[in-house]
Amino acid sequence: MTRLTARFWVDAYLARLRFQDIPAFVTSHGDDTAGAVLVKLNTLDGKASAFHRTYDLMTGSRRWQELAKGSEQEVDASIRRQRDFDPDLWVIEVEDRAGRHLLDEPGLD
Predict the structure, then answer these.
(1) Domain range spanning residue 17?
(2) What is the pTM of this model?
(3) Sign of the CA dihedral 74, 80, 86, 88?
(4) Which of 15, 50, 97, 107 has the largest count of CB atoms under 10 Å?
(5) Tens digit of pLDDT for each residue in 14-71?
(6) Are 52 and 65 contacting, i.e. CB atoms less than 8 angstroms apart?
(7) Which SS3 state, helix, strand or coil, does residue 9 take?
(8) How many domains, the chain?
(9) Would 34 be classed as within a structural domain?
């Protein structure tokens, strides 16, 4: 099975968010081809969550899992630690008071 490049996936995700009028920004540009992607959801009330994609070895499926949740400062610190560990990491910040990130929709796994 052919995998999408990280850049292609990020561009498609940002377009999908734009169609729903959900603001999102690339805050860290990772490796275009094979960089991992982390999504920060900022609910604009001082709280945030960070999501990363996991792979289930038993089923071969991918899904988005919450990596960190709490105050925006705590989530930002967690993201910094991830960036220190993986400099090729993409970070996308989604800003939505209703908590929409669209990661649970078909096609984003």
Answers:
(1) 6-95
(2) 0.90
(3) positive
(4) 50
(5) 999 999 999 999 999 999 998 899 999 999 999 999 999 988 788 877 889 999 999 9
(6) yes
(7) helix
(8) 1
(9) yes
